[in-house]
Amino acid sequence: MGTALIYDEEMTKYKLLWVDPVCNIEVPERLTVSHDALVKTGLADRCVAVPVREATDADILLVHSEEYLEAVKTTPYMTLEELKDFTLQYGDVYFHPNIYHCAKLAAGATLQLVDSVMTGKVRNGMALVRPPGHHSMRSAACGFCVFNNVAIAARYAKQKYGLKRVLIVDWDVHHGQGVQYCFEDDPSVLYFSWHRYEHQKFWPQLRDSDYDSVGKEKGAGFNINVPWNKVGMKNCDYLSVFCHVLLPIAYEFSPELVLVCAGFDAAIGDPEGEMRATPDVFAHLTHLLMNLAGGKVCAVLEGGYNLTSLHQSVCQTVQTLLGDPAPRPANLDGPCTSALESLHCVRAAHRQYWSCLKHAAELPTSNISTKCIKVTEGEEEKQETGEEEKSAEEETWPEPPKRFPPPVSTAVVLPEGVACPDGCKRFSSSEDPAIVDKLREKFLPESDDSDALTTLCSLTGLVEEMEKNEIRNGLALVRDVSMAMMCVVQHAATAHHDRVLIVCVGDAVVPSQGTDDGKTLLVQFSNKESEEQKGKFHIHVCLKKGCSDVSGFTQAVLGLLLPLGYEYDPSLVLLVRTPGSGLSDGAWQQLTGLLQGLAQGHTLVLMPEGEKACVGPTASSLLGVAAPPLGKLHAPLPEDVAALERLRLGLQADWKLLHTTAPETGGGGEEH
Ligand code: Q9C
Ligand code: ZN
User: Fold this and answer.
1) Which of 134, 135, 195, 344 is catalytic?
2) What are the φ/ψ torsions at residue 211 (nearest 5 degrees)?
3) Under a CB-based contact definition with an 8 Å cutoff, are residues 103 and 135 in contact?
4) Could you give the count of Cα atoms lying within 13 Å of 642 in the half-sphere of its Cβ?
5) What is the mean pLDDT of the chain?
6) What dotted CATH number matches 408-634?
């Protein structure tokens, strides 16, 4: 199952015809550079090309008023003066004789994408469109947008495929107020947006864009706004909001389809956003959504005005949709104070609606509220740092490194008699006698179990192949998981793996030796009440029913394991399942899928021989098949939520990505 790419050159055939410094950034080249980059990198060739179509009147009327549609219909016949006049009634938008045609194609392209994904023709996809859509409202063009492509698509998907829950993730740097207004009272469409806000000083300067616009009536809780009150937000700020707000709520919601308002003006170098996230962050944002809705993710271009960061970000997004492993996340040095203030406010505003946030801190006292306008009348405060402030467009950053998917995706080490799952490769390493002797001496001194020795030997070989990027990930059924784990950890250190993240599901005797020097980070999930925390690198997550409560487990994975994993940035993930872990296949597949955003997808899974039935589901997740949806999650056990919160608080001193509130300094002024 492939990835759709929807594009038509026709959508480059309109442009600004008069002088307007507000609109001159929205140029046809936005589309051509993006598409050219996909062609040059060979990514376009790997996608399924799906043709665009014109949205019909009926499609457009799903969101827009008849009067507005009829008015737009007359624009192709207008003179230049009439177009200018027509434009004047709206804000930050321009018309052109061909824009109506392009707007129909942009909406139609989005619907073609939804159809391709919903009918199973492809797994996911991206539509490269102009004009964008998320600012346009029922009866108004706005912010370069004419028809609300994604809003139309959400209504269309609900109507045509009977969907009950659609998630819209708007990672464009502007607030998609058009989408918010469309679904404000509708609990079947969950809308999430982060946006440059600056205490309402940034366009579109709406009170409605703040964190306390949570939706109305039945839709209360289904509108999530994350206002950025400072510019310069980085990868860490974005990932933190995904881990601590979007993902927990999205998993609880359990969408049947994910639509992304995929603007790239939140990336570094963009003159509108003035943020500092690098293009590779979009690989991670995309990856983190790909296990929702059974992988049904439709990304639709919105903004993005720095042509370089735009095409780099588009490539990162498409390459991830295609299933290539994400690059290692770099420099996650902790969210900034302003981002933490926003995070705190959003979580507080939503805690009454989502059980995953039940224990979130209450709204901060007014002095750190994001509403507090710290800027003095008129001029922006400018901290004189001596260093000249760079304008966004002068910003430079290295080109994201090329991503090479290893020749082998998934290697398996299985006992004879256990079939090799489709798409995987059976792995056995040539048995170098010197290595075999060492392994025997260390791990099997007084046994002559040659099968066990062969398995250990294969595991060490597998670790080396992953380090060389010849193999992406692997899976092994072993007799003694603890011993295999020990063997892999010891070998990884000699095979140049700088850091190994060990995720252990269930009770096992885990090696505590060597987990205090930072070369390994051990996170263990079980129902065994643990003694005190054993230090920064040995973390025990205790859940009352172990891993059998899917809600509690999911919450622990999203709010604890993922941020720890991202901040630790391992070069290898060792995922260990112990006998009788109680974890359902679905939750296990989610875990396996999510962890592959780390370590360039280098995950080695160890399972006990008794769990043969789990080989198939695990292999499928390792191969990049989306995990099946977990269904709407019920509230986790209150004691688990409380325990997780305590654990998170206790670990905050060591792990910055676990913070969800700003330090109480009274003002929260310091920045980056
Ligand atoms: N500098 C999209 O990204 N102008 N639209 C703002 C403040 C409007 C952006 C002026 C920007 C519209 C789809
Ligand atoms: Zn934008």
Assistant:
1) 135
2) -65, -20
3) no
4) 4
5) 92
6) 3.40.800.20
Mean pLDDT over 606-634 rounds to 94
State how far the Cα of 13 lies from the Cα of 298, in Å rounded to an integer. Answer: 24
| pTM for the model | 0.96
What type of residue is 364? P
Where are the chain's structural domains?
3-326, 408-634
Q: Identity (one letter) of the amino acid at 356?
A: C
CA separation for the pair 61, 72 (Å, rounded): 13
Q: Enter the tokens of residue 577.
A: 């399942």
Q: Tell me which residue has tokens 């402030």.
A: 389
What lines the ligand 1 site, CB under 6 Å? 22, 92, 132, 135, 143-145, 172, 174, 203, 263, 265, 272, 302-303
Tell whether the torsion through CA atoms of 586, 582, 635 and 534 is positive or negative: negative
Number of H helices, E strands in the chain: 21, 16
Sign of CA dihedral 657, 659, 662, 663: negative
Q: Which H or E element spans position 233? A: none
Structural tokens at position 26: 């929205």
Q: 315-366: per-residue pLDDT in tens?
A: 999 999 999 999 998 879 899 999 999 999 999 999 999 999 988 989 877 5
Strand order in the sheet with 166-170: 48-50, 2-6, 122-127, 297-301, 257-262, 166-170, 189-196, 223-228
- State the fold for domain 3-326: Arginase; Chain A (3.40.800)
3-state secondary structure of 594: helix
CA of 85 relative to ligand 2 center, distance in Å: 24
- The whole-number pLDDT of residue 660 equals 96
Tracing tokens 């859509």 back to the chain, one arrives at 133
**Cα–Cα dist 222/188, whole Å:** 8
Q: How many CA atoms lie within 13 A of 584 on its CB side?
A: 16
Preceding amide of 663 cis, omega within 30:
no
Query: Is the Cβ–Cβ distance between 336 and 656 less than 8 Å?
Result: no
In the numeric block, which tokens belong to residue 92? 């930050």
**Euclidean distance between CA atoms 340 and 17, whole angstroms:** 42
**Cβ atoms of residues 310 and 172 within 8 Å:** no
Model pLDDT, residue 547: 81
Q: What is the rounded distance in angstroms from the CA atom of residue 132 to the CA atom of residue 263?
A: 9
Which tokens is 33 given? 């550079």
Q: How far, in Å, from the CA of 172 to the mean position of ligand 2?
A: 5
Does residue 135 carry a catalytic annotation? yes
563-603 pLDDT, tens per residue? 999 999 999 999 999 888 889 999 999 999 999 999 999 99
Which tokens sit at 180? 């918010």
What is the β-pairing status of strands 425-426 and 408-413? Answer: parallel
> What ranges in 375-449 are assigned the alpha helix state H?
433-443
By DSSP bridging, strand 189-196 and strand 2-6 are unpaired
End-to-end alpha-carbon separation of the chain, Å? 43
Q: Cα of 595 to ligand 1 centre, how many Å?
A: 35
